Amino acid sequence: MPFRGIRHTPTALFLVAVILGCGDDGVTNPPPVPTGTLEVSTASIGSAIDADGYTVLLNADDTGAIGASDSVTADVAVGQYELELTGLADNCGVIGDNPVSVTVVENEVTTVDFSVACPPFFDYMAFTWDGIYVMEVDGSIPVNVTRHLELEQLAYLDWSPDGTRIAYRIFGNDGYDIQVLRVDGSEPITIDLPPVFCVHSLEWTPDGTGIGFAGGGENHDVWVVDADGSNLMNLTNSAAEEMDATWSPDGSQIMFVRSLPELGLWVMDADGSNDNLLPAVDIGIDLHWSPDGSRIVYWCRGWEVCVMDSDASNPINLTDHPADDWSPDWSPAGARIAFYSRRDDGGIFVMNADGSDVSFLVEGGQPAWSPGQ
User: What is this structure's pTM?
Assistant: First the structure.
């Protein structure tokens, strides 16, 4: 029995047979088997999507092909079924349960939606809503890559430099921890931090081997930890409070906010040595070094998004809007900036790096732009 294409005509055939009578052989035919409609959809994201699509299994039987972003239907006998998506490329993974159990009800449509992630991700965007979503940078095909996970106080998303993983802060049993997840939603690794720890920023090291963050217990410092959770190291270990940190694109320096001997922006070598106070005329948080290393975007006074040169000079207010704006992040080429704003009922906006051409993108918060290729 063939699938009927919804978005376009697929090549799939749904080989589930509804057994009917075989003609007049002198035996009374049984009444028709009651049927319902099964609709299967796929949505695939990533920079290496499997162009050949996938295979649908119904109760372990091969029922044919479905496209990478496709929708097909079939009328099947009512009952309980196990539906599985197979035939994925090695780099792709189904997000959430696979297979899934479904119940087809007479004269009703039962829908099954499979989301597939195919890392790496180049020039995509992640954001928070009721989990972590990944979408095209034009706002299309938003997919919840953590719909199978329970995440409390999710914050500070950041992509690995190779575009395959996302790191973020979560609330654990006795404080905040860091979790690393493949973008297909698999292989979550929780980096258990010391008890009663606070984490208020995090960022992958440019070489992709570790994650840097600001935080701590009674005193906040700048730390770095390997991406597998090993080798936690305090880089500042000072009496001052360090509140934020961002790595230079070449990995040689870290800029951060420090409270003592005076509140200001500081830079140090990536191993924590040679710390120096910058002659900054403006101090912000949520710092992010631009991809070319020339500028810093940050959340500045008055709930605005600002930029400054990497030596902390020439601060410019990019948003200058009555609504609150924060949580900025650079596009891979540094030509655009994404940020959260409370304007127009709130959501993620994008603008040019000079503050022009502001446009609404999607509902959600804490945008994180994936790396460039």
Answer: 0.88
